[in-house]
Every structure is written in structure tokens, then in C-alpha cells.
Amino acid sequence: MNLxxxxxxxxxxxxxxxxxxxxxxxxxxxxxxxxxxxxLSVFVLIRLIFYRNYKKADQYLTFFAFxxxxxxxTYLLNKVEMSMGAAFGLFAVFSxxxxxxxxxxxxxxxxxxxxxxxxxxxxxxKGGWDELTLLNGIILLATFLxxxxxxxxxxxxxxxxxxxxxxxxxxxxxxxxxxxxxxTGLNIHRVEIQEIDFLKDATRMTIxxxx
Length: 211
Hints:
Shape: elongated
Number of domains: 2
Pfam family, one: DUF4956
Strand order of the largest sheet: 1-3-2
Keywords: Membrane, Transmembrane, Transmembrane helix
Oligomer: single chain
InterPro entries: DUF4956 (IPR032531)
Structural class: alpha+beta
Distance between the termini: 60 Å
Number of helices: 8
Largest sheet: 3 strands, antiparallel
Transmembrane segments: 31-50, 57-76, 82-99, 111-128, 134-152
Number of strands: 3
Protein name: DUF4956 domain-containing protein
Helix content: 55-70%
């Protein structure tokens, strides 16, 4: 730092410091308030709702990075009178992104869609902090209710290989369900037979159960 100060002339150094202060002055309190509400909303969505239900921490970087980049880009573009059509066009471009190396589950894509929506909404909303908090709160509340068992009972699926093909006939479906419940300990209520291998006396099926 001392070497830099010795290299630069006093006038140049003062110009650099003045430009730095002007940069921070251009970012109003409104920007930092919106950024705080945006990051807080995403934290609640990902840490308290997504992770609580799916125990997946590997998506943290993806969700927070997407949200932050969307917020900053949209906030900047909003400074040049970006129309609502352009905003939704940007939203559509980012929401249709796919990874090439691995497939993304519908649940992960839904949460990616939500963090993009929160970032976009936080950047272009014309209301105050109270209105923005209310809008983000509605998204969070709706997601929480849909992920809980309050509105609809959550159904899960698993694919497995079953070795007792004598029970797969329609008339013995109740016996099949009881045997599967006893073996897996899951509250299974229906099954779908996918394949039957009579040579190995086994079948591949999908079980449906409630948590």
C-alpha cells in the first residue's frame, strides 16, 4: 500500500479515493435493504424448508449463487428503465437453464425457479421494504404449506426388486402390501409392477408410501 502511495501522485491517489467513495454513494440504502430481504428470504427457503425436507446441502452454492447473480443483474438493468417484458424475458432465460453433466430432479428445479423468482422480485419491485417482505413471505408460506402434510399428504416412491412373485396377482394384492410393509417398515398403500422375471422368480416394482 505504501509503495502504491509513493508511486501515485497525490492528485491521482485523491481521484481514486474519491471514485471509490462515489461508488458506495451510488448504492443507496434501498439497495442494501433489498439485498438483505432477498438473502434472508433465500436462507429461509433453502435452509429451513428445502434442507429440512430433503437433507441436501450440495445445492447451497447453486441456489445462493443463482439468486445473488439474478438480483445484481436485474437491479443494474432496472437502473436503465428495463421494461417488465424484458425482466420476464431474463427470468425465462435463467429459469430454463439445465446442467449438462447431471440431471436435476423436478424438486431441485422447482427450488431453483423459486430462488430466481425471489431475486427478480426483490430487484424490480417498486414498493417499499414492507411490501417486498410481504411478497417474499407469501412465496415462503406457500412453499412451506405445500411441503408440509397440512394441505395434502406427501407421497414418496421407491423402486425395488421383490422375490415373492406368488403375491403379485391382483387377488392377492392385500397380502402383497402386508408383506412389503413388514419387510420395509414403510406405510405402503399401493404398488405398480414394472417387470416380471419368471426365470429368477423376481419382479421389479415401484412402491408408494406416506411418510
